[in-house]
Predict the 3D structure of the following.
Amino acid sequence: MPALASENSARIVIGRERRSDVAAREDLLDAAFGPTRFEKTSERLREGRRPARGLAFVARQGGQLVGTLRLWPVVTATGHTGLLLGPLAVAADARCHGIGAALMWQALYKAKTLGHRAILLVGDAAYYNRFGFSAEKTGALRMPGPNERARLLACELVPEALSGARGVISAAPSRLSQLVQQVSPLRHIHCATTEPAAS
C-alpha cells in the first residue's frame, strides 16, 4: 500500500476502505462538508448505492482515518460509461501533507487498472487540472440537478472515451438490476411454453 511521510512520527498509508471504516468516514465527511453535504447534486448519484468495486479508498495515520475518496459507476444519456469521483476529504489536522493528491493518484491508477474508461467529478479545476481533469469533454453533459457547469470536469483514462457524450449523467444500473432485466423476458417465455395445451 502507498505510504507518505509526514511531520508526525506516524506515516500515512493509503489503502482500501473496510467495513469498520464507515463510522469514521462519515464523521470525517460531516466535519469536512457539514450537514448540507447531502443536498449536493452529486449525492443524487450516490444515495442508496455502493461505490464501484475496489474503488473506495482511505488514508490512515497511526491507525486513525484521515482521508477518504470513493468512485461510483455512472452513465451518460448517450450510453458512455464512467465513474463519478467524490467526495474527497482530508481531516483538517492532516492537510498539507499530500494526502488528497495521494488518494487521487491511487484512485486514477486503480480505476484504469480495472478497465474503467473515464472519470467525472464536480470540483475546482485549479486543483484537479494536475490530475488530468478539465471541462473539455463535459460541455454537452449535465448533472441531474443544479450545479456550476464550469465545475463539471472529466479525465479520460482511455483516449476519446467521452467523445460524443451528451445529456444527463445518471447512476449506472447495478449488476443485480441488469440481471433482473435480462431474466424478466425469459420468465415470460417460460410461462408461455408451460401453459396447458387446449383440449
User: Anything to note?
Assistant: Residues 175-193 form the longest helix (19 residues). The chain has one domain: 3-172.
